[in-house]
Amino acid sequence: MFGYIRPKKPELLVREYEAYRSVYCGVCKTLGRRYGVVSRLALSYDSTFYAMLLLSLHDVCPNFQRKRCVANPLKKCTFCVGVEPDLQQAAALCVLLTVQKLRDDRQDKGRWSRLRARLLLPLTHRAYRKAAADYPWMAQEAGACIAAQAKAETPESDLDTCAAPSAEMLAKIFAHEAGEDSAQHRILWETGYFLGRWIYLIDAADDLQKDAASGDFNWFVRQYGVTADSTEEALSEARGKANGCLNLTMSRLGAAFELLEMKNFAPVLRNIVEQGLPDIQKQLLFKKETK
C-alpha cells in the first residue's frame, strides 16, 4: 500500500475525523513501541484504514485517551486504546509491506529509488523480523506478492495479470479475518481484491511520467506508447484510459464494501471508500489539467 487510501476530510464530522486521527496516532504509537522508533517512518493512511477495518469487524469498543504526541512531545494527541491487537496487526502489515516495497525498489532503474531503498533497508531488518515473527501468515503473503509481481510484469502481460498479485495479497489478508464465516470470507475477499487492484492501478497511473522517463515497467506506459517526450495531450489521453480502468475497479469495490457488516467506524470507512478514493483518483490523474 502506498498512502492512497485517505478520507475526504471536509465530508467528515468533527468527531469522525477525531476518531480517524486517534487510530492514526494509535498505529504510530504501536509502531514505535513494538517495532522501534525508525518503523514510524512507515506510518501511512493505508495502515490506518486497515486498523479501522479490523476494529469495525471485531466486537470490541475502543477507548480514547489524551496524551503527549509520541513524535512531538510539545503537543497532545488523542490515542485509540484498549484495542492493541488490532493496532499491532495494522502496524505489522505496515512494516512488512514497506520493507517489501523497498526490496522491490532496489531493482528500479530510477537512481533515487535505488539509493533510497539501499539506505533504508538496513534500518528495517529488526522491525521486519519481529513483524514476520508476530504474523508469519502476513509475511508469507507479502513475500509471495513481490515474487509474483516480478513474474507478472512482462511485455506480453495484460493488465489483469499485472494487477493480480497485489489484488490477491490484499484479498487474502482481508479474508483472514472472516474465520469460518464463508459469507463474510467472500465479502472480505472481494473488498480486498478490488482495493488491492485499485491501489496497483492508481500507483501505475500516478507514475506515468516518472516510469516513462526511467524505463521502469508500467503497463499504461507500454500500452499507450507514453515516452519521456510525450505531449501533455498524449499524457492526458493515457490518464483518461487509466481513469476508466480505475472506475470499473471502484464500482466492484463499492459493491463488495456495501455488504460488510461494520460494528465500529462505519461512517469513516464509508467516507474513505466512497469519497476519499474517488477524490484522490481525480487529484492525481487530472492535476495537470486543473493547474
From TrEMBL:
Family annotation (InterPro entries)? DUF5685
Q: State the source organism's domain of life.
A: Bacteria
**Which Pfam families does this one have?**
DUF5685
This protein is called: DUF5685 family protein
